[in-house]
Specification:
The complex is a heterodimer of chains A (174) and B (73). Chain A is an alpha/beta fold and 174 residues long. In chain A, 44% of the residues lie in helices and 11% in strands. In chain A, β1, α2 and β2 form a beta-alpha-beta unit. The radius of gyration of chain B is 11 Å and the shape is globular. Classes of the chains: A alpha/beta (174), B alpha+beta (73). Chains A and B meet through α2 of A and α1 and α2 of B.
Chain lengths: 174, 73
């Protein structure tokens, strides 16, 4: 018995469990996508094993700019027209003014050297952040893998999200 | 003079932390990395990151509105 415990401890010392961080990205608003990616990349800079789980409108951040009309159902098609998606077409949650708000916000960010959502998304991938799309909301909205950008993890569901959060020292819903 | 210099001047949060983290990943043990940043938030963020990661800040100073941090891996 004693030797068994000792050997487990030895294994734990050799392969220390990397601390985990999970962010549930449920919004497609520019002012939510930005902090999601700022925190995800900074978490990776802290040596954390970061997973971002994209669900509902959060999926729009992961859509390809040229995704076009998606889905089989007319309602899915209409949704894909209204919510064009891609990280370059996100709207502000307030003061959107038909795109005037995001345009001004992005212009200010560029002037002040604030990394864009696209840049942060690329950095997140480079830094090993796991970008995980939610399968149920992809089905709901009629999105296929072809509508999404490259470099994503396998899609998963709420169970995987809960399992990850149970293990994580930081879990955020944004 | 540090072994590696990271220029994060003009860059806003979270870039100084991401830049120093990437540089430290590449550095070998015992090497020093100097970060130069103009983001005022770095004054709090860089020491917080270094402490959490177990890196020691050998030297820290401000000159011409730029913040210098010399960190040893």
């Amino acid at each position: 018995m004693t030797t068994e415990v000792r050997s487990e401890e030895a294994v734990a010392e050799v392969t220390p469990q990397q601390e985990k961080m999970v962010i549930i990205a449920a919004s497609g608003d520019l002012d939510k996508a930005w902090p999601v990616l700022i925190l995800a990349t900074t978490g990776a800079a802290y040596g954390l094993d970061v997973t971002v789980f994209f669900t509902f409108w959060g999926l729009t951040i992961l859509k390809r700019p040229d995704a076009g009309i998606s889905g089989e159902d007319w309602r899915q098609k209409m949704l894909s027209v209204f919510a064009k998606g891609s990280s370059d077409h996100l709207k502000l949650s307030t003061l959107n003014f038909a795109g005037m708000g995001p345009w001004m916000m992005k212009g200010l960010a560029e002037d002040q050297n604030v990394a864009s959502v696209q840049e942060l998304l690329e950095l997140a991938k480079d830094m090993g952040v796991t970008l995980m799309p939610c399968q149920m909301t992809m089905d709901l909205m009629g999105l296929s893998r072809d509508d999404m950008i490259d470099g994503l993890a396998e899609s998963a569901g709420a169970g995987s999200a809960i399992s990850l959060m149970k293990e994580a020292s930081i879990s955020l819903f944004i | 003079m540090a072994d590696i210099t990271v220029d994060a001047r003009g860059l806003q949060c979270p870039m100084p932390v991401l830049k120093i983290s990437q540089a430290m990943n590449k550095a070998t043990a015992g090497q020093t990395v100097e970060l130069v940043a103009s983001d005022r938030g770095s004054l709090s963020d860089i020491p917080a990151w270094a402490a959490d990661m177990g890196h020691s800040i050998k030297e820290q100073f401000e000159s011409d509105g730029e913040y210098h941090f010399i960190i040893e891996k």
